[in-house]
Amino acid sequence: MFDKETYLRRRRALRAKIKSGLILFPANGESPVNYPANGYHFRQDSNFLYYFGLNCPNLVGVIDVEADTSCLYGDDCTLDDIIWMGNQPTLREMGERVGVQHTFTMLELQLMMTMAIRKGRRIHFLPPYRESNVLLLKSLLGIKSDFIGNYVSEELIKAVVSMREVKEPQEIEEIERACETGYLMHTTAMKMCRPGIVEREIAGTIEGIALSKGAGVSFISIVSQNGETLHNHYYGNKLRPGRMLLIDAGAETDMNYCSDFTRTLPVTGRFTEQQKAVYDIVLAANNRTFELIAPGVTYQSIHLEAARVIAEGLKGLGLMKGSVDDIVENGAYALFMPHGLGHQMGLDVHDMEDLGEKYVGYNEETERSTMFGIGSLRMGRKLKEGHVLTVEPGIYFIPALIDKWRGEKINAAFLNYETIEKYLDFGGIRLEDDALVLAKGCRLLGKKRIPITAEEVEEAMRG
Questions:
Q1: DSSP class of residue 222?
Q2: What pLDDT, on the 0 to 100 scale, is given for residue 93?
Q3: Which of 112, 308, 413, 437 is the most buried (most CB within 10 A)?
Q4: How many helices, marked H, and strands, marked E, lie in the chain?
Q5: Element (H, E) at 60
Q6: Residue 52 to residue 69: CA distance in whole angstroms
Q7: Res 84: pLDDT
Q8: Is residue 385 packed enough to be buried (19+ CB in 10 Å), middle (13-18) or exposed (0-12)?
Q9: What is the structure's pLDDT at 453?
């Protein structure tokens, strides 16, 4: 965890943003796989981590705005716990580590909340995403589970987003560490990729690297020679000559800060002429994005500029036709890139997505588009110094989507299906890096860029 003053400062800043009431931050509990004693890897709630810093289950942090105090609620380990887990810090000791002087049992939390409700005090909490915390809030507040969402505090959501979206220097250092692990994961995959190897061999190796360097992977890795499936979590294919392997994978540090990178590799170690032509278009869109990122610019507008690069490139290959302006305006490019250009990243790989993308990626000034493709853009609002975001353009040939558009004559004026048919077994290419927005422009996160040009990738694979 960071030093005690970090959490004291963050809680003070949050209190100043909330008018009145109690602020609840339930920690996560353990989650069983198939019976209570066999649990998934524990992952703490990111908002609890941000304000209370403790990577321990079954706690609740409470900030009293009027009293200007912070309290920690939980139950100390029993002897039976110690037999199985070893000696554990007491609740009071954990509180002292993060500057919380007031610690109480969970029973006392229930009593305190009952009194607060009777007094008509405002209770602020964030949207719960685990059923166990829905049930906890139901018990504490007396609200039926189905109606918990109606009582979520928009005031608290906006306050938390305003703080977490601008990364502190020490947070950036943690993200850089996650990026270094990501570099090792992807360069190792490049050395392993060859015909005959099974996807899971690479997936297992790179996930092992993430665990050996920190808290493991930041999301379920995508390691697939069927890269046209955007979130493909099947690892059972044997790599075949002529295919490309798309690897979308990142790491978490011990403090749960994330990285997120994607590279696309030719299984034989050398791109075909057709593959390289498409690859270079995606790379050009990636590089163009880095040229445009700056404070005050909307990421929505940058998405559209990356789309222009893709449309221009696909026109050059004879896959698209017509004016590039018209292609982008009508969303015709989305046949080949049906997702957004990127998202915020930090303690979550899709940072703060549990709080709602309309607060994290958009606001009153920048509305989300309803158009196919750009409608999937998670981050569209104006950029700020200190934002961390992903840059991940791609081009995919998805037979089912192509069939749908062709059959329904969607954007038919911009598409050359006779040429597109020659790419139906192509797969997909995505190239993703992580960027930090600076006072002017941006910079790549990580000490070294993972090999990304076609020549660099081929050289790394030979190594």
A1: E
A2: 97
A3: 437
A4: 16, 17
A5: strand 60-64
A6: 13
A7: 86
A8: middle
A9: 98
DSSP 366-393: SPPP-STTGGG-S--SB--TT-EEEE--
Closest listed residue to residue 408, CA positions, set 304, 348, 345, 335:
335
Contact 187, 450 (CB under 8 A): yes
Nearest CA among 436, 382, 357 for reference residue 175:
436
Token duo for residue 389: 């975001």
Question: Hey, CA dihedral for 399, 342, 214, 92, is it positive or negative?
Answer: negative
Alpha-carbon distance of 37 to 8, in angstroms, equals 35
Q: Residue 264 and residue 49: Cα distance in Å, rounded?
A: 34
Query: 85 phi and psi, to 5 degrees?
Result: -115, -10
Considering the four listed CATH numbers 3.90.930.12, 3.90.230.10, 3.40.50.980, 3.40.718.10, the one that applies to the domain covering 169-462 is 3.90.230.10
In terms of Cβ atoms closer than 10 Å to its own Cβ (0-12, 13-18, 19+), residue 203 is: buried
* Angle subtended at Cα 244 by Cα 232 and Cα 307, rounded to the nearest 5 degrees: 75
What residues of the chain score a pLDDT lower than 70?
A: none
- Fold (CATH) for 4-164: Creatine Amidinohydrolase; Chain A, domain 1 (3.40.350)
- Residue 203: per-residue pLDDT: 98
- 8 A C-beta contact, residue 137 and residue 147: no
According to the model, what pLDDT value does residue 83 have?
87
Number of other residues whose CB lies within 10 A of the CB of residue 241:
11
| pTM score of the predicted model | 0.96
- 258-270 CB burial, b ≥16 within 10 A, e <16: bbbbbbbbbbbbe
pLDDT of 412 reads 97
Distance CA 450, CA 308 (A): 25
CA distances from 321 to 26, 311, 413 (A): 54, 9, 7
Q: What are the tokens at 29?
A: 């509990």
Q: Which helix (H) or strand (E) holds 303?
A: helix 299-316
Q: Domain segments of the chain: what residues?
A: 4-164, 169-462
Which amino acid makes up residue 346? Answer: G
pLDDT attached to residue 329: 98
Give the pLDDT confidence score for residue 248 in this predicted structure. 98
- DSSP assignment string, 396-459: E--HHHHHHHHHHTTTGGGB-HHHHGGGTT--EEE-BEEEEE-SSSEEESSSS----SHHHHHH
